[in-house]
Amino acid sequence: MNIGDFARELGEERVERERDVAIERARASLKQEGSDDCEDCARPIGQARRKAMPSATRCISCQEDLESQQRKVGA
């Protein structure tokens, strides 16, 4: 194995490790429970939303508003 092959292999291993860490962080955040109250309006997050998205931190109304704003900025 030459130096170029070795360097490329090390780089690929680093990318794989970083990907694995990112996947584990994402999985861990999905397992975390959100709050009971919306972080924007402080009203309780509905049971249906909590059941569908346990990690939710916003009520459905505030989440829709946020996504609408993000679409406008991205357009």
TrEMBL record:
Zinc finger (dksA C4-type): 38-62
Gene3D superfamilies assigned: DksA, coiled-coil domain
InterPro entries assigned to the protein according to its UniProt record, in alphabetical order: Znf_DskA_TraR, Znf_DskA_TraR_CS
Domain of life: Bacteria
Keyword annotations from UniProtKB, A to Z: Metal-binding, Zinc, Zinc-finger
Domain Zinc finger DksA/TraR C4-type: 34-67
Region forming the signal peptide: none
Pfam families the record matches: zf-dskA_traR
Protein's name according to its UniProt entry: TraR/DksA C4-type zinc finger protein
